[in-house]
Design a protein that fits this description.
This protein is an alpha+beta fold and 288 residues long. The protein has 6 helices and 10 strands. The two termini are 25 Å apart.
Amino acid sequence: MPELPEVEVVRRGLERWVAHRTVGAVEVLHPRAVRRHLAGGEDFARSLSGHRIGVPSRRGKYMWLPLEDAGQAVLAHLGMSGQLLVQPHDAPDEKHLRIRMRFDDALGTELRFVDQRTFGGLSLHPVDAEGLPDVIAHIARDPLDPLFDDEVFHQALRRRRTTVKRALLDQSLISGVGNIYADEALWRARIHYERPTSGFTRPRTTELLGHVRDVMSEALDVGGTSFDSLYVNVNGESGYFDRSLDAYGREGLPCRRCGTPMRRRPWMNRSSYFCPRCQRPPRGVTPG
DNA sequence: CCTAGAACCTGCGAGC
DNA sequence: TGCTCGCAGGTTCTAG
């Protein structure tokens, strides 16, 4: 499931294979893949064609291809199962191919957006003075962004009446963190996912952010996490960080720190994995 | 304004 | 064999 490290791997692939090329014909094969482009698929295809792509950028789980001299960018979100593949023209269409982008050059490759569950998509938007697409102005900077403000994040945690994992997944507070890296960072920080954020001290926030950054940086180093064939990077290669996950998906397996069997709890229509010994629940929360 | 929870979507595997 | 159901979960929308 693509979170920040996986998306960054894809962005780097786009920088290598797609930047500085001029868009040719674009085919939209499924309307849901362009649902954020309100003018529709035909407008999306027509508006892109003929523009030269600049250096791909990213914030959290969103990435975008700036169109040079157009004041606009192609915004991409992979959702749950999205892939951006650079393929030769004669490669067979993938079963869930949603969008095809050709280029006005002789390199012989095209960009394909493939997405089984159609939670992701592409769309075209104006960019602001800093080059950010207008529709993601509400997305916070991510923890690997040098301009991420730890103190602002800490004060936001103190102000919120919520629990720590909800806060980590709130993209308007901190972006790029999903269910997997949230569980990993909380396990490293020995914090239970239902701990209220209002009582967080500055050292606790600092330690948690450190673990978020560590786990994401390590994943990035090995090319992103992958659990099955749903996630591949821009060139179709799977990541392999899943081999070193400490919490996510380890129900019943011994905690790598203390040996206590790890637990899984239903949480917000998904799952939370944690060590019942290292990550003690706060007062009032039924122990796992 | 704030927070919680549902809805969106498809494939896979378990259970019967 | 074939059916149903739970599960995977990021984002947006709605309800309270």
